[in-house]
Amino acid sequence: MTSAERKQFDVLVVGAGPAGIAAATRAAECGAHVAVVDDNPALGGQIWRGGVAGAGTSQAQGWMRRFLSAAPRLFSGTRVIGQQEPGVVLAEERDIQRTLRYRTLVLATGARERFLPFPGWTLPNVMGAGGLQALVKSGLPIRGKRVVVAGTGPLLLAVAAYLRQHGAEIPLVCEQASWSRLLDFGFSLLAHPGKIAQGLKLKLELGSTPFAANCWPLAAQGSGHLESIVVLRNGEKQEIPCDYVACGFHLVPNNELAALLGCELRGGFVAVDDFQRTTLPFVYCAGEPTGIGGVDLALIEGEIAGLTAAGDEITARALFARRRKLQKFVATLVRAFAPREELKTVPSQETIVCRCEDVPLSRIGVHAIARAAKLHTRCGMGPCQGRVCGPALEFLFSWEAGSVRPPVFPARIKSLSGREPEPELESDKTTGGIR
Amino acid sequence: MSEQITLTVNGLPVSVPRGTTVAVAVLLAGAVCRHSVTDEPRAPLCGMGICYECRVKIDGVAHCRGCQTLCEHGMNVRTDD
């Protein structure tokens, strides 16, 4: 049954990961009327995804408790699809269309994994690293399964440790970065004692899990289903039988909504000032869309955005010093986990790059710019709207991301109308009505 | 023990603990989520609502992302098998 709600909020937060939770909590604690819109079924975003197992770190539990006691309005399973006019966004929850009005908007839309194509990466059971972790948190049994974890970034070790804790066998963790990059990264952590403690805890959880640097996937193999993965390890090919491949190449920001609204992007990230204000009036941004910096930075950016959005700039300002320290970590991550040039030669001409439209590399490479490839091949025109292939094309061809057009996610036509639906008839309620 | 939810995937009953997503129920039923435009079998990639590889029909509504939808009693899930 269709129903629509019109709501007016002082602060509307998009995203209920760490940045969104911190922003909404701080703003609500200031007395503002706050709402949070989040696509996931439950609070926490990706890093604090609870799912069946529930729980999470004490940091996560602390913030979630504080969020619940500040009690902003939470719209879970709801995604913002566009803006009707400044101050009014359209959102969709299954078949409910919502028109949400705000005085200030905080974008805390997080990040997703960067996927780089390799032969066989479209086989079932080849998933993102965070992707497989999310599915295990959502109930997928992993005990006794062999999972090769591959790609780049600190997430790989966290995922390997998590899967191992849940009974998976990890034949190998393949990190494409060189040992020298990893050592630089290790030394730079000396400035962040908290992160060293996290690292040591990971090391304990990982136990004897084999780890290889200078190692990346060449091909996933199997007829109809995954049977093995071939990796290049210190220049030599190695085939590893496995049930799953968990592969991601660090993270890219979810900045499509910010781009759609008209916020300025710099180097692919949402440009913000000291108070996390974007270049648009009354629109703030916090967390990964402003630079991939991890949960601690996301939290403090969220706090600053939420406080400022609710009018408490003095308390926000007191957090600047802590944020500055954590921001140094952003550049460190970029340096350590930039994908190496050799990864550009991994996909073959037949390798599918755009999974929505099944466009192989051979059909894309003949074009000079992303727009031409899109117009001629439909690359990036499927339901993911280029969120998967876009960052791959950016890496493979140094192409800039295309423009973002509304709706920012595929939406039902009735959600786009932004119109109040007909009032629900009493008789519809009893008969189930007609859609 | 957490509560078990029973739903059907392509007509076959599947029981999962409450909190399990539809994408996981499809995998447990041994099905793939969809076939691509060149007829390749596809299953979840991103696990977080971005890639749409896990889209299935839920209670007659097409193009629902299985990874962002929690299983409910009596839910009728159909892949394009």
Q: What shape does the CA trace of chain B take?
A: globular
User: Helix tally of chain B?
Assistant: 1
Give the biggest beta sheet of chain A: 7 strands, mixed
Radius of gyration of chain A, rounded? Answer: 22 Å
Major sheet of chain B: order of its strands?
2-1-7-5-6
Could you name the ranges of chain A where pLDDT drops below 50 across 5 or more consecutive residues?
424-435
Using DSSP, what is the number of strands of chain A? 21
Helical residue percent of chain B? under 10%
Structural class of chain B: mainly beta
Question: Helix share of residues of chain A?
Answer: 25-40%
CATH class of the largest domain in chain A: Alpha Beta
Radius of gyration of chain B: 12 Å
Number of domains of chain B: 1
CATH architecture call of chain B? Roll
Count of the separate structural domains of chain A:
3
Structural class of chain A: alpha/beta
Summarize the structure.
The complex is a heterodimer of chains A (435) and B (81). Helices cover 33% and strands 23% of the residues of chain A.
